Structures are given as C-alpha cells and as structure tokens.
Amino acid sequence: MAEKLIEVRNLKKYFNTSKGLLHAVDDVNFYINKGETLGLVGESGCGKSTTGRVLLRLIEATEGEVIFEGKDINKLNHKEMRKMREEMQIVFQDPYSSLNPRMTISEIIAEPLVVNKVYKTKEEINKRVSELMEIVGLADRLADTYPHELDGGRRQRIGIARALALNPKFIVQDEPVSALDVSIQAQILNLMADLQEELGLTYLFISHDLSVVKHVSDRIAVMYLGKIVELTDYKTIFNNPLHPYSQALLSAIPIPSIDVEKKERIILEGDVPSPVNPPSGCRFYGRCRHRKDICKQQLPELKEMGKEHFVACHFAGELE
Amino acid sequence: MNGEQMLLEIKDLSIHYTTEDGVVKAVDGMNLEIAEGETLGLVGETGAGKTTTALGIMNLISTPPGKIVKGEVIFEGEDLLKKKAAELRKIRGNKISMIFQDPMTALNPVMTVGDQIIEVVKLHRKVSTKEAIKHTHDMLELVGIPGERYVDYPHQFSGGMKQRVVIAMALACDPSLLIADEPTTALDVTIQAQVLTLMKKLKDELNTSMIMITHDLGIVAEVCDKVAIMYAGNVVEYTNKENLYRTPKHPYTVGLFNSIPAPDVDEVRLKPIEGLMPDPTDLPSGCPFHPRCPKATPKCSQVVPENIEVQPGHFVKCLEYSEGGLY
User: Fold this and answer.
1) Does B1 score more than 50 pLDDT?
2) Which of B221, B246, B255 comes nearest A254 by C-beta?
3) Residue A182 — very low, low, confident or very high, per pLDDT cuts 50/70/90?
4) Least packed by Cβ within 10 Å: which of A79, A292, B206, B214?
C-alpha cells in the first residue's frame, strides 16, 4: 500500500520585482510516495528549481503547505525545522559551485555531521565519512584532496555523499547530471538508483532532460510557467501525453537512432512568456496550436483524465 | 574515397598545448574530409579535442600555449595553415564561418544586432551601407526574426533568438563551410528544435557544408550525413550516419550508445563506460581507450591502432579490426 511521504498543497512562491509580481511557483499540488521518484520536468524559468527549494524550505513559500510525514513544515519553528532538515536533503546541479573550494572532501562530507553534532568523537566522524565515500564509490585516498583536483563526476559523488550523511528519507535532486558528460551521467544515474533501493530513499528529480527523467522516475510532472500542466506515470507521459505542451516537449527530443519513423515534429512558435504578471487564462495560450477563446479567458484546472493521469487543458483527450 | 573534390581535407593534423603539467596532445594525427553540401558530425565528450579541431581549421589556436605541430588543412584546394594572417582574415566570416556554443557571450552587448551583422558584410563585400542594411534585414528575416529588430541590442532577445542572430551573422556572407560548436547545448529543448529545424532548412537552401560539433547523438541522427567520433584527440571511428547507427564498430562508440537513456526504450539499467577520461598530459600507451575498454588485451596497451577501413567508407581505429587482431 503506497504511503505518502510528502504532500504539497496550493504551493505558491511569488517574487516582487521592479516590473511586477513574478509568479515563480503558482498553486502547485502533488504528492510523493515513500520510495518513489517523482520527476519534475520543464524548461528554463518554469519554476522547477524554485519548487525544489521551497519544498525544503530553503526559500520561504508565499503560501501553501508542505506536509512531510503528516507535519506541515511551513509551520515549524526554527529549532524544529533544524531537526527536520536531517530528513530532507538536496543535491545541486553544479558540481563546481556547490562544493566549498577551501574544504577537503572529507571536510565537506563531514560538515552536516559536525553542524548537527551527530557524533562525539573525531574517530566516529571519520568512520562515517569513510563509509559514505565507499557507498558513493569514492576511493579512500581522495579524502584529503580538494574539489578542484577532481572531475565533475567525482565532485557530484561528493555532493551525493554529503546529502546522505544524515540518513535522510527524502532527497531533492536538482538537475544532478546535467553538467556531466554522457558516460559519467550513466554512472551517476545507476548509483542513484542503487542507493534508492538499498536505503529506501524518496526522490524529487528535477531536470529539463526528458530522456533522463523518464529513466529514473516512477511518475512525472510537467511544469510550464509556474504551473503543473500534466502529471502521470513515466510510461503514460511518453505513450499518451495529453497536454499540448507535453506533446511538443516530447516531440522536440532528438532521438539517437535512424530507424525510427520520422514523427511529426511539433515546433512551438515564439518563446516562453515572462512569469511576471502572467495573463489570466491558460499560460500556454500564446504558443498553443489548438488555442480557442475559452483558453484565453479561463485558467484550466488539473483534471483526472485516466487512472492517476492529470491534465490542465480544456480540451485534454479531444486533441489528436 | 571517391572522385568528388572535397571542400575540406584535414591531413594528419596535430595540435599540442604546452602547460605547466606537461604537453597536452589535444589533437593527434587527425584525418577528415567534407564534401560540398555535406554535414559532418564531430562527436565526443569533454576534452576529446573537438573545439580545438575547429579552431585549428581556422588557424585560431592561441600560440602560445597552443601550437599546430604538423598537418595540413586543405580548403578549396589550398592549405590554410600556410596562409598569411591577412589572407586568413578574408576567409574567416566569409568563406568559413563559426557559430560558438554560448550565444550569450558571442554577441557584443554594446552594439545593436544589426550593426554586428552589417560589420561582417561590409568587411567582406564591397557594398554601400544602404545595401548592407538591406542585406542585414533579409538575413534576420531568413532566420525568423522580424527585420525591424535590427536596431535592438542582444539583451533584448531570448537565448534562442540570440542564437538565431549568431546564425544570421555566420551566414551573412554565404560561406561554403559553417562550423557550429555545440550550437544548441545552452538552449531549452523546444528552442533547440526550432534552431535545428532552421539550420537544416538553411543548409538545404544555401547548400552550405557544415561541421556540427556535439556530444548529442540525437542531434547527429537528425542533422548529419557523416560522423566522426573523437576520443583523446583521435578520430576513433568515421563513417556515414547509417553505418554508425546500425553497425557501430569502435568499443567507445558502442559504449556511448549504451550510456544514453533513449526515450523510446524501456531499459532499467544503463551500461556506462567504466572509468574516466584520460589525463591529457599523460595519455595511456598504445590505444588511448584501452584502460576503459571491455575488449582490451595486453596488446592494446603496446600497439597504437591504425586507421582501418572495415567496410567501404567506414574507418575504425581498433586492433580488433587490424591484421593480427587483438592478440
């Protein structure tokens, strides 16, 4: 029986800018089951990274609830939140800027343990660091090296080891392999899958790369301009995407094969509009090839179209 | 290969960089050719030597620390490496153009996009300013940007549109060869689709030859006719698209295909290539790929593989296909 670890309700994050109110995350709802990976997919500026950070309360939400194991973390006080952070960690995109260049690898991995006063002696800390380095595949002899001495793949392993240090239940992976070469990406993706199985971890996997997301996720949410436009399992999003944006996103991926039939390419016109003072009505209106008047006037809600398949489009299921 | 006169022939090109840590053999004895109207994909991961090759073709290697130690780059029958600076300036931007990876930094932020295109046109063509402006207008329209935007500055355009401006600049003088260095890596996937469609269309209309530098085998399948796979400064496999995707021969090529999660396949576990890219100042002996190769034998660490034609037009550098084989 699937158990919800995290539930997000009506989550909003708005930023005040000189040009107006920027709707980065605009009334987002989803849940993640224990042991599951939810993929969060979208292009630049859709709000996926902001969602990840608000989820961990690295940024304060403007409105909404983040319910972790039954508790709304947005209502916790400073001390309670400190304790809660041990359960929820993050791996960042850039393995170059996310590591302190003046700390050795073992110092970086040990930092969460030191800050949270997990152990009493240095020996215990070193033992745990050794353990973590082994789990992520980092050789012991690298313990006293500095980040700049290592390549992107190894640096990302350090980020992962650091995220695991406190035995969290939940990890936000914010584009963890985008900056890595293809052959290294594959190693890191396999590692993350193994760790999830061995340690019973739950992941939110944020990425713009649909092929990678499909490979690692159980369910996938597609975001556009601060809103979730489609949410379903990984097979359905590829076999039967119902939102016009999802369809375009999928058709845009260049396939590394010459034997596939030339599918009809859906080329979106124009660029992503600004999330500042967004129009009322459907956010995708300007670029949607199926747009009608109602789309301009009324914001479509996420509706359940099939088993656990949610789509925010007035004409979902009616479009070819 | 056949009787066609090649637009570009690279022969035995070697480019080294001298660093504090030793000599980096960035490009090592490379051989390539491109016919008119053809698109060659130059594929490899970080440090393979792709960008260095592109800069080498246009003789843009910073010397020091770089140096073209040997080889020829024969373009339209003449060796570019033997030309004087003044002659090369007439060729760059005119007969051979380059599109760089990051459109954000390729454009001058204090000039309008129109002025930047006019600059290229006036440098290489004897035209009046009025004619140059008209041509600029036409080039912008050609890449799908409203012509009247030529008075706008780069920061007023999105990433995808900036890349279109860069393409317009590169094509303004109707070059025979366009070198595109990861032109869509920095762009969102739907914008990438727009830009690739545009590049294909222009290539067909203008019959421009193109070198497409990328690490993305999906882009190669869409846009390229021939493919060269690079590893540690060497071209390890070189053939047409059909051969590469249907019967890849080099273990590195096979490894690359196994590393990518393809959207239409439902595999559980990827098969990554073991190990890491070699230290360029300390390349392995024999075949540079042998420490990571699942088929390597002791002979592979001793003998440098030669370029073997395994089937007509399909070249591989691997001992498995040489006389004597792996043992």
Assistant:
1) no
2) B221
3) confident
4) A79
Q: Rounded mean pLDDT of A164-171?
A: 95
What value of ipTM does the predicted structure carry? 0.77
Buried b or exposed e, range B234-267, using 16+ CB within 10 angstroms: bbbbbbebebbbeebbbbbbbbbbebbbbbeeee
How close B268 gets to chain A, by Cα (Å)?
Answer: 7
**What whole-number distance in Å separates Cα of residue B209 and Cα of residue B4?**
14
B149 dihedral zone (left: phi>0; alpha: psi -120 to 50; beta): alpha
Q: Is the pLDDT of residue B4 over 80?
A: no
Of B190, B215, B264, the CB nearest to A249: B190
- Do B261 and A255 count as a contact with CB atoms less than 8 A apart? no
**Taking CB atoms and an 8 Å cut-off, how many pairs form between chains A and B?**
122
Question: Is B263 within 8 Å of A153 when comparing Cβ atoms?
Answer: no
- What pLDDT, in 10s, does the model give residues A17-40? 888 899 999 999 999 999 999 999
Mean pLDDT across chain A: 91
pTM: 0.85
B148-195 per-position pLDDT tens digit? 888 999 988 888 888 999 999 999 999 999 999 988 887 888 888 888
Is the Cα torsion angle A280, A282, A285, A290 positive or negative in sign? negative
Q: Does A262 touch chain B (CB under 8 A)?
A: no
Q: Is the pLDDT of residue B2 over 60?
A: no
Dump pLDDT digits (tens) for B257-303: 988 887 666 666 788 888 888 888 888 999 999 999 999 999 999 99
Q: Do A256 and B242 touch (CB under 8 A)?
A: no
A254 and B216 within 8 Å at the Cβ level: the answer is: yes
Question: Of A237, A245, A250, A247, nearest to A306 (Cα)?
Answer: A237
Contact check, Cβ <8 Å, A272/B277: no
CB–CB of A213/B189 below 8 Å?
A: no
Q: How many alpha carbons fall within 13 Å on the CB side of residue B74?
A: 14
Q: Which residues of A touch B217 (CB under 8 A)?
A: 256
| A48 residue type, one letter | K
